[in-house]
Design goal:
Blueprint: E1 8-12, H1 27-39, E2 45-55, E3 59-61, H2 90-102, E4 108-110, H3 117-126, E5 134-140, H4 145-154, E6 163-169, H5 175-179, H6 186-199, H7 206-214, H8 222-225, H9 233-242, E7 247-253, E8 258-263
Parallel strand pairs: 1-6, 2-5, 2-6, 3-4
Antiparallel strand pairs: 1-8, 7-8
């Protein structure tokens, strides 16, 4: 990896705030992401693409100090008292918006929206010091995979500026299956994940890898794994942002089926 070129990470943010509440099922994930943060070189800023923000055109948080958006319910009181007082990055947001405009998008700067749990939950594990500027980029309504790869390609320049790009989603996201153990078998999830691991192997060209990601519904039991693909598409943005950098599987939790992928690690 060239000096000061940041990697790109696709991380699972877990179930609401559970990774931060000592939930035993999330213990392995919490420990891994916390350890991963210790291994990362200090980035100049962090850009997060979360599964929990969708807009018609790309939107970027652009406040000086965004608040937290507690977009979950039914959890203990302490989960609504979490804080992540990192500064925002309005100037970087404006720079990204200019690049997105050049790529044919119509970006918007949002100074009102706070960071949702797809941002602050993984960052409280990855960078609990909250000392690095953070901004969030939305997914696009319509959930077109090719468009999200193009979105990633348009922000790939950030890696040269030592900006850490984090896709925050889940490689497996079927809400019914989280409460019904008989709905999905472990072997089905593993076969689905293997499709993406195989797709990102270096023997495939970038174009071939992109084609396999665009056609993700050809993966085994794809719609059973993702009845709606908003938690998968941050991977497509990460793939585009990495622009051919080698992908590496860093972590695969067989308990909750949480996978961590890194590009250019």
């Amino acid at each position: 990896m060239p000096p000061n070129q940041a990697p790109v990470l696709y991380l699972p943010h877990g179930g609401g705030p559970l990774p931060l509440l000592n939930d035993p099922n999330h213990q392995m994930l919490t420990q891994f992401i916390t350890g991963l943060g210790h291994k990362l070189a200090t980035p100049a800023a962090i850009l997060v693409i979360s599964a929990h923000w969708e807009t018609a055109q790309p939107a970027l948080t652009a406040a000086d100090n965004p608040a937290l958006l507690f977009d979950y319910s039914g959890f203990p009181p302490e989960s609504y008292q979490l804080s992540y007082p990192a500064p925002g990055a309005p100037q970087l947001a404006a720079q990204i918006a200019e690049k997105l405009q050049q790529a044919g998008f119509n970006p918007q700067l949002n100074t009102n929206r706070g960071w949702d749990h797809g941002v602050f939950v993984p960052l409280l594990m990855l960078r609990p010091q909250a000392d690095i500027p953070v901004l969030q980029l939305s997914l696009l309504k319509g959930l077109d995979p090719a468009t999200h790869i193009a979105l990633g390609e348009a922000i790939s320049f950030l890696r040269q500026q030592n900006v850490l790009i984090v896709g925050s989603g889940m490689s497996f996201h079927n809400m019914q299956a989280f409460f019904r153990q008989d709905l999905v078998r472990d072997a089905q999830v593993e076969a689905f994940n293997q499709y993406f691991i195989d797709s990102l192997q270096p023997q495939h060209s970038y174009a071939e890898q992109a084609k396999r990601l665009i056609n993700w519904q050809q993966a085994p039991d794809a719609r059973l794994m993702h009845p709606r693909e908003e938690h998968l598409l941050p991977l497509h943005v990460c793939f585009g942002a990495a622009k051919g950098s080698t992908a590496q599987l860093l972590f695969n939790d067989k308990v909750l089926h949480k996978t961590v992928l890194a590009f250019g690690w």
